[in-house]
Amino acid sequence: MANNYKITLEYDGSNYSGWQRQKNTKETIQEKLENALSKINKNKVEVIGSGRTDAGVHAAGQTANFFLDIQIPTYKIPIAINTHLPDDIICYKAEKVAKDFHARYDARGKKYRYRILNSNFNSVFVRNYVYKVHQRLDLDIMQKGAKIFLGSHDFAAFCSAGSSVDSTIREIYSFDINSKTNGEIQIDISGSGFLYNMVRILVGTLIELAKGKRNLADLEEILAGTQRERAGFTAPAKGLTLLEVFYD
To answer: What global pTM score does this model have?
Structure first.
């Protein structure tokens, strides 16, 4: 009888067209995982992710589940998977879960980090994981702006076109912005769930606020409305990392 397994993985999204399997490319995280697991299982395996990450977005704590027909000690699953994965995708944890566990539908929230390098110079070592902004950003007003988004709101104005969700209401649990000594600004946001490009649009809007292009009243008006064009630009994908997926 097949067993259901949950895995936790990390990946560098730089060279991939996102999480979801696609017809026009084999360079997706889901396809790489399914190919690896199918080799182990000797039969086709479908992987269910907690959600989709876009092209260029990274993950440090993405979760997924799948069924295996073979009998294998749970602790050996990450080792077996990693044998068949490229170096920029790593599975580091596996758990046997209930038959009805679903990585997406059972998720209760997610935490993301967006990294901005607020400096005159880029960094060779982090350039693929940060968005470099030359103009000095006002950290204090960014922190004040982030507080406006806390709680439950209709985030329709912060959702890119192409989304087919039933509701655009989401709850933000925490929204923390901190400066590091190397000029990096780290934005950590956790919530019940996020709309298509929502985190990146929120970050883009806060960057415009920090540059003096918007004020705090603008953010409140944008949030109260539903017009995407009123919100800020979509910050580049490479600065975003999925840190954690929450379950009961």
So the answer is: 0.95
CATH of the domain at 155: 3.30.70.660
Is the domain of 87 the same as that of 130? no
Q: Tell me if 119 sits within 8 A of 106, measured CB to CB.
A: no
Q: Which residues are annotated as a binding site for substrate?
A: 112
Encode pLDDT of 147-171 as tens digits: 999 999 999 999 998 777 889 999 9
Pick the catalytic residue from 12, 54, 88, 218. Answer: 54
Pair (78, 118) in one structural domain: no
Q: Is residue 103 part of a domain?
A: no
Sole residue written with tokens 């705090």:
216
CA angle 236, 240, 243 (to 5 degrees): 170
Question: How far, in Å, CA of 185 to CA of 143, rounded?
Answer: 11
**Sign (positive/negative) of CA torsion 116, 33, 103, 20?**
positive
> Tell me: the pLDDT tens digits for 5-64?
999 999 999 999 999 999 889 999 999 999 999 999 999 999 999 998 999 999 999 999
Binding residue positions: 112
Catalytic site includes residue 100: no
Here the tokens at position 145 are: 């702006």
The CA distance from 58 to 222, in Å, is: 28
- Which domain does 121 fall in, by range? 109-246
46 and 87 co-located in one domain = yes
Give CA torsion, residues 153, 157, 162, 164, to 10 deg.
20
Q: Are the C-beta atoms of residues 59 and 241 closer than 8 Å to each other?
A: yes
Q: Both tokens of residue 118?
A: 């607020």
